[in-house]
Protein 1
Amino acid sequence: MESGLGIRNSKLREETIINPETGEKSVKMGGLTFPPRRVWMKTYGCQMNYHDSLRLLAHLKNLNFTKTEEIEEADMVLFNTCAIRDLANQKFYSHLGEMKHLKKKKGEKLVIGAGGCIAQTEGKHLVAKYRHLDFAFGTDVIDQINDMVFRTYSGDDRFAVNTWDRSSNFSIETKINHGTPQAFVNIIKGCDKYCTYCVVPYTRGRERSRKLVEVVEDVKKLVKYQDVQEVTLLGQNVNSYGKENGENLAQLLYELEKVEGLKLIRYTTSHPYDITDELIEAHGNLKKLSNHLHLPVQSGSASVLKRMNREYTPEHFLERLAKFREVNPNIVISTDIIAGFCNETQEEHQATLDLLTNAQFDFIYSYVYSERKNTRASGMDDFLTDDIRGERLREIQKHQLDLQLHIRKQMEGRTYRVLVEKEKTFKGETKWLGRTNCNRIIHFKGQPETNYKWHWVDLKVLDATALSCQGVLMKDLGTLV
Ligand code: 5AD
Ligand code: SF4
């Protein structure tokens, strides 16, 4: 496999030239020649951002950039930023600040760019404030990265691009993880939900879906030409998929089920309001659909959900969960929780603890509420202190870990089929790590000389705690089942 760009991208503007004497590759774009260069990249935030980073790297490969993990040897440093909570913001700002020293050391040779959610809304400000930043770019111009890099190497003044793609349909080529059987496929971008705490509708824009036929075609090609076996359909709110085209997620899943050679389908992230009966039924009918569902609830209190503009009640959420479990008793469900939303009372907080007990989540991501500029919640009364928020978060996490231990213990003695992703050394011991269909990670040792990467294996779970799971190899099925 070459760059990881979708195979539709056959007519490249970038022309490759190989020096017949040295064998060195250079790339010509317009009047500029690009020698082999290194790019170092830091990604913050969600899967969408990680996916965008892969797209950036795939494009940059066509301009003769390869990825480096060593920032000191980089010719270009790129940040892909996240604006969802203040912590991610602060990390990026301090990292960007530090880059001043590297730029001083390496001089004008080092190019620094910042993209993603912070750059979408703050790009101009970033370029004005940080003199060592060469360019900033928003979330909707990822695929124009080579034009921006070209501008920079052409000697253009420092600039920011944060335009929205106004074309009526969302149509993109799929970029995949280099050489892995797992691929992310973007199906919808943006979000129209406007949860009062959330900055995403402002950093990612309005919802727009790809056409169903295009997505299916893409997946077929990934399976046929790139040996992909597992796809994760991506979007800020995948349950809104297809609305503007008279299509929906359930229809897409039924079509993808038919793709020969595809083994596993995941999708993320969901919004409980848009979960239809048809989609739930698909979880009972479709063999390739993952047994894991991430369904962010945010709070267990009806009044908090109302202040968050989440459009559902805890009862509705629990009813949807019960339906999922009815059609597929093996489904495992995870969620997101925000602790200490504006003016949350002790009773409202208790309602979240109660919901955790009732819902029996497999795991949760939990955060303290973080005020984001220009969101509706930023204008709400909020007398809660950071201490109370922190305390509530710890209480939520502790409660969940107790529940989780009980849930995970039930895995002991059972055998799971997993796709092995990598080897990891922990406390001096090296083990392989694989992911079950239901998205749980199991560690195992295997035979000393065998490379299990991307093998499907059957593992029997010997020991499970709330946070980790140890198994023993029962059967190695190789790279393709
Ligand atoms: N403060 C805290 N958490 C937030 N999230 C989104 N916005 C905020 C915020 N302002 C959380 C939600 C969402 C996840 C991706 O991030 O739980 O589901
Ligand atoms: Fe943000 Fe709500 Fe949209 Fe999720 S659904 S991205 S929390 S606005």
Protein 2
Amino acid sequence: MRPIIPDYLTDALADVESDVSGELAAYIPELAGADPDRLGAVFATLDGTIYGAGDIDHEFTIQSISKPFTYALALADRGFHPVLDKVGVEPSGEAFNQISLERGSGRPLNPMINAGAITAHSLAGPPGLDPAGRVERVIDGLSAFAGRRLAIDEAVCASEMRHAHRNLAIAHMLRSYDILTEDPTAVVEGYVRQCSVLVTVRDLAVMAATLANGGVNPLSGEQVVHRPVVRQVLSVMATCGMYDAAGDWATHVGIPAKSGVAGGLIGALPGQIGIATFSPRLDAHGNSVRGVSLFEQFSSDAGLHVM
Ligand code: DON
């Protein structure tokens, strides 16, 4: 008997394959050289079963999909109050690279936009950790979510860092409000390394499944973070994960999610499944065009909308 889900996934990919709308992320020159036609999707169930179709073993950089996981590490390492003092949980309604700081305090509105993610990066690991140690903590943590050792794409990292003027400007603003308390350039360098971690769509589905599974990686059995942290992270993904398209996503798809500018997209359904897609062309919000279509299809076909 042929497995049903791979056939379903193959058909779903075929349905979106002809859509070549959207653009590669040109503001990171190395990403503009990616093969725009790559396409893959994976379902990871909570018993550790992986169903996939398309380019499931192709590596690409995690980019903003690292943000919910690093936020989880910051919450786990520092506790809720110290993190909430520095990063809010309100949707910004603005693009991911807008400054979006709370008036007065200078606190970034949420940890999914760059301002909040740069701050969350600075809060990973114990207080006083040096920038290199912090990057190590973040790579170790992302690897635990994926269930395998992850590496950095140095070419993408260098390319982004050479053009990181916007993130550097945001970090300097954060420093001026004492939201960051150290050298802004060193924090941005660490954050860019975090974004340059290489993953496959399969890794991303396992990372999402770890969130769906209350913080326990379904492959390794490791409790990566505790349940209250997962609840916080999934709540922020639900409200802020798709940036200024979060409302459209909540109504059409209804799954806590996060996108990345290399073309990855994850969704985590608590108690059910982790889903990931990969297709590099992006819409105006920086979300994968075919990834969004696939999730709309999955949500409607399988009744996955949580609301
Ligand atoms: O900081 C940046 O701009 C990139 N490293 C990540 C942005 C990103 O992935 C936005 N999401 N779709």
